[in-house]
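quick one before i forget lol
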Amino acid sequence: MTVVGPFGLSVRDQALETDVQAGLAAVEEGLLEATKSDVPFITEAAQHLVRAGGKRFRPLLVMLAARFGDPYAPRIVPSAVVVELTHLATLYHDDVMDEAAVRRGVPSANARWGNSVAVLTGDFLFARASHILADLGPEAVRIQAEAFERLVTGQILETAGPRDGRDPIEHYLDVMAGKTGSLVAVSCRFGAMMSGADESVVDILTQYGERLGLAFQLADDVLDIASDSHESGKTPGTDLREGIPTLPVLRLREAAAKHGLAEDLDLLALLDSDLTDDARHAEALTRLRAHPALAQARRDTVRYAEEARATLAPLPDCYAKAALTELCDAVVHRAG
């Protein structure tokens, strides 16, 4: 039994492990090639997050989904490069909007070069992803365009907030399905589609990716509060400090509105205060870690991971299916 990919995923078949590792290595080469420019400064900025590493979660899903068809089909690696380039581009833009100083354990592009360079570098990565997509056919272009529309819509809805009368948690889950679930779903869809898998298999893996992506994002929400060393390289409590609503905070607000307990209202008042103050920020983290709202957010994460696992049931048993199932377990483990 060997380990490959994010979260120490165990792959129990030597041939699968070898092929996945080879595929991910080819994706890494593709990412470096796609981020080269005739202008050295653009190359440096575009490769900043590529060289910082990362889980390569989406390319891994492409490789595993491709096992249900021809895993050596020529369009699989380029499609994995496309989804990772798109993901990286969103990180450049997210860090500008969030005014983040650190990403993947290194200074964010906006902290190093300023907001304009970070935004334009993200645009450059989108352009390179589109260039690769053009060689993958019109269906791939359409799928990616639809996913990108969902991603951007999710970001806009997050910025706008829930409309009057809308449950904030339902709104948030819709936002996260767009921002994260859409691209994870495309990763699974591309892997299966580019390998020539049956349409029914493509549909199953797309649904799996949608649910796994949401569970993955909710696990990040939990980690932002619960972890002392955030796996993404971000400082714990970053979203809390920036006032970005995440599921544990939304569950706290729900409990406060329902029960009106003084301790909940007092914690909300602290969360709504200026958390750029280190002492208040530390107190907010400590108190939220001990609150039942965090446990509820964990249960929400487990629910979506279990839905992802259940989606795989119709697929034939194989090592790739076992690996996809184990990813559900790994997401739950991340959330504690």
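fyi The mean pLDDT is 90.
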